[in-house]
Amino acid sequence: MKIIFCIFFFTILSCNSSTRYISDRELNNLVNSANTKFFQTKDREVLLTVYKKLKCNKNFKKEGLTGNNSLPIIALFMNLNKYDELEKLLIEDENINTYYRKNTLNVVRYLKNFNRDKVKSQSYINENINRITDSIRKSPKDSLLYGDYFAMRMFLNGKAKTLVEIDSMQAVNKKYSEIFYESILKDAVKEYPDDYLPVK
């Protein structure tokens, strides 16, 4: 659930025929640094500068999202509200785990449509909830699936109501430890960026 951003500073050069391409590692460091600085300062220019550098990475230019760069780049596009571009990248992606890709794609579609058609946008989250619930049924020992489940509930109901739902589960389901409920499920909800959450 938690996306941990590492803090690195790199000099950002413009990408053209006379400059070198950026390696996957450099790109990840640049994007992680930009995402971290954005959460600290809310300065979109930091994000836009790195966004312009994506074409300097051969793998991104050729393949789009890959297993190595997917999380930080998805966060970059989310922070920039570039939902159309991110939707296209996720539709075309063949590298990310199908379960994760479909869930992320529906979250992007939810955010993209929220202010235009709330019923349609919520249908994407409900589709995710159905997929996650089915995964829990098939893999009942995979406790981290509950993190995905409550993340989707958070989109529909906001953080406060979702924390109450976790409390309700904790009261009746003693299969998991207090640490699981408090430090994994609840912390993930509390720390989720409000910028990605139309329902506060």
Question: Would you report the number of β strands?
Answer: 0
> How far do the termini sit from each other?
18 Å
Ranges with pLDDT <50 over ≥5 residues? 1-14
The geometry reads as globular
Radius of gyration, in angstroms, nearest whole number = 18 Å
Largest sheet: none
- The ordered H/E elements are HHHHHHHHH
The helix count comes to 9
Average pLDDT score: 87
Percent range for helical residues?
55-70%
Q: Which structural class should the secondary elements be placed in?
A: mainly alpha
**Approximate strand percentage:** under 5%
Overall tally of domains: 2
Structure write-up:
- The protein is an all-alpha fold.
- Helices cover 66% and strands 0% of the residues.
- The chain folds into two domains: 1-96, no CATH class; 100-200, no CATH class.
- It is built from nine helices and no strands.
- Helix 1 (24-41) runs parallel beside helix 4, helix 5 packs antiparallel against helix 6 (98-113) and helix 6 runs antiparallel to helix 7 (118-138).
- The chain starts with 23 loop residues before the first helix and ends in a 9-residue tail after the last helix.
- 30% of the residues are buried.
- The model is unreliable at 1-14 (pLDDT under 50).
Describe this structure in a few short sentences:
The chain has 200 residues and is an all-alpha fold. The protein has nine helices and no strands.
Architecture blueprint of SSEs:
Layout lengths: L23 H18 L2 H8 L6 H6 L6 H10 L3 H10 L5 H16 L4 H21 L6 H28 L5 H14 L9
Helix pairs in contact: 1-2, 1-4, 5-6, 6-7, 7-8, 8-9
